[in-house]
Amino acid sequence: MAKITKDEFFETNNILNFKWGHDIYPWLTLKDVLKAEEMTYNDLAKATWFSTILIAQICTNKRRINIPFAVALQEQFKVSATFWLNLQRAYDLSKYFNNNYK
């Protein structure tokens, strides 16, 4: 698999390209960014002051990306907090519609 830059990743995974009914996974996006940056959960925890446990929970879909964490991701990866929050919100909406409007 060819390695892509962070900028290429965000260009090809633009939140506006998602359509209803398709799965949107904010935690997988974060895991992909960590992989592209060659960072571990522990590395991100040290850089953001969030616990490794919290980061692991987000990356395994046990917790949502919230505002403080989105701001920390913005500072670490130079990708807007709005991107991360919109990604989480789009997933939440997709999950709601898929569960309630089958």
Structure description:
This protein has 102 residues and is mainly α. It has a single domain, classed as 434 Repressor (Amino-terminal Domain) (Orthogonal Bundle), CATH 1.10.260.40. Helices cover 64% and strands 0% of the residues. It is built from 6 helices and no strands. It has helices at residues 6-12, 26-36, 41-48, 52-59, 67-77, 81-100. The radius of gyration is 14 Å and the shape is globular.
Beta-sheet strand percentage? under 5%
CATH T-level fold name: 434 Repressor (Amino-terminal Domain)
Distance between the termini: 36 Å
CATH architectural type? Orthogonal Bundle
| Overall number of structural domains | 1
**CATH level 4 superfamily:** lambda repressor-like DNA-binding domains
* N-to-C SSE string, H for helix and E for strand: HHHHHH
Radius of gyration: 14 Å
CATH class: Mainly Alpha
Mean of pLDDT: 83
Structural class of the secondary elements? mainly alpha
Q: Helicity range of the residues?
A: 55-70%
Number of helical regions: 6
Largest sheet: none
User: Unreliable runs, pLDDT <50, ≥5 residues?
Assistant: 15-22
Q: How many strand segments?
A: 0
Principal-axes shape call: globular
